[in-house]
Amino acid sequence: MTQKRMAKRTAEMGSAPIGPLLIRMSIPGIISMVVMSLYNIVDTLWVSGLENGTEAIAALTVLMPLQQIAGALGMGAGAGVTSLVSRRFGERRVDEVNTIAGNAVVLPVILGVGVAAICLMFPEAMALLFGGSRELVSVAIIYLNVSAFGFPFQIFTMTVNGLYRGSGNTLTPMYIMAASALLNAGLDPFLIYGWGPFPELGLRGAAMATVTAQVLGFLISIIYLNSGRSGYRIKPSDLRLRVAILRDIAAVGVPSFINGCVRSTVGSVFNWVLAGFGPAAIAAQGLSMRVVMLMLSFMGPGVSQAVVPITGFNFGAKDYRRMWRTWLTSSAGLSAIGVVLASVIIIFAESILSPFTKDPEFLALAVWALRLKVATIFLVEPQMMGVFTFQGMGMGFRAMVLSLARNVIFVIPLVIWLANTFGVKGAFAAQPVADVLGLLIAGPMLWKAYRQYPPSASDPQPASDAAGGE
């Protein structure tokens, strides 16, 4: 993408009709998330065919909180970069974006290497920390000792994708994530079961497929960033970390990372609680979560890749009317989609999950967990669009508080209390109850922000000026 095309694309964030703009910018993100979620489903399906399939799925579930932390580093840095770059375009400070890009290249390398080193030095401690019971730790370590090598590549790609989204380019991240996920899914059966000339590696093979795919995503990202099409021109001097830029990235990125850590903590608490009910309960949590993530990939996570840059641009341009229309349009549309998708999943839950296991206990628990988890998603979407709106405005702390309210204040006490009172099925009811209670926090927070930046205070710059001209 040339500089002229970048300017045109960023200008559209301040002038194009909101509905079509959200759809156009969201579709690449949605496709990316759907492909990644489908990969996770396929990966779980291949692993379920192993002799110890239930334990293998449970072991992957134990490691989900750790993977969420690694992903949170990438998502946090990427969200901070997206918000910062889009605001600079909206403020017409386009001369700063290349320096931001240089810092966005160096930062994830440092973060990724650090996480990988900790995991490789203390694999057993990591597995136990995130909820692994003694009977699952040895299985989880087999996967972790390989998958940890992929964390630096994963975090780098997620961070640099924020540069593209910040300039309104959501297609490139889609291509990168899709290529990585497709390679991963394609390699799985060969490395897990030893198809063709490959050795049979079991769970270790699944990890090797994941790392290989993450390296591919990294290579594509590096090549594109340094091509003339990316629109960025990074000089060696831009690679020197700047405290001011890191501080701006951290303003949104650190709260986003904390949110990811909170989700990891919640996942660990679920694992600790469910461990008392056996591997089937943990496996049911992991399998139902993968299906929920597939459902959500059609909704908030993909649409966020449009909401954050559009909000950031219009907040920088002081067009608050357009900014709040973005929140309202995305919230209403996603809530309606949530009702439809949840209804389908609730009706066909058993048919969806039955290919993954022949264990009736595992299947019954997974069906119960899945139906509960999707029932309240239509209430979650306005809350999540509020989180992404705050991120776009550069208000990372508010975004963090809004996310923490549902995931910490309510979920953790609920899962412990409901599990003790009603058993394993009660534990699965904690999240939907928390989704309802989260409205009590989200409503007042969004209303306060609306009054602070009301549509009547809008003072938008001409779109061509805000983008830096043609």
Return the structural class.
mainly alpha
Number of helices: 20
Give the overall silhouette. globular
Termini distance? 14 Å
* Main β-sheet description: none
Task: Output the keywords.
single chain; 470 residues; mainly alpha; 20 helices; 81% helix; disordered C terminus
Helix and strand layout, with pairings?
Layout (H helix, E strand, L loop, with lengths): L2 H10 L5 H31 L4 H38 L6 H25 L1 H7 L4 H14 L3 H16 L4 H23 L9 H23 L17 H33 L3 H18 L3 H17 L3 H34 L6 H16 L1 H16 L3 H27 L1 H5 L1 H8 L1 H14 L10 H4 L4
Helix pairs in contact: 2-8, 2-11, 2-12, 3-4, 3-6, 3-7, 3-10, 3-11, 3-12, 4-7, 5-6, 6-9, 7-9, 8-9, 10-11, 10-16, 11-13, 11-14, 12-13, 12-15, 13-14, 13-15, 15-16, 15-19, 16-18, 16-19
Care to describe what's here?
The structure is a single chain. By secondary structure, the chain is mostly helical. It has one domain. It has 20 helices and no strands. It is globular. It starts with a helix and ends with a helix.
Produce a short descriptive summary.
The chain has 470 residues and is mostly helical. The chain has helices at 3-12, 18-48, 53-90, 97-121, 123-129, 134-147, 151-166, 171-193, 203-225, 243-275, 279-296, 300-316, 320-353, 360-375, 377-392, 396-422, 424-428, 430-437, 439-452, 463-466.
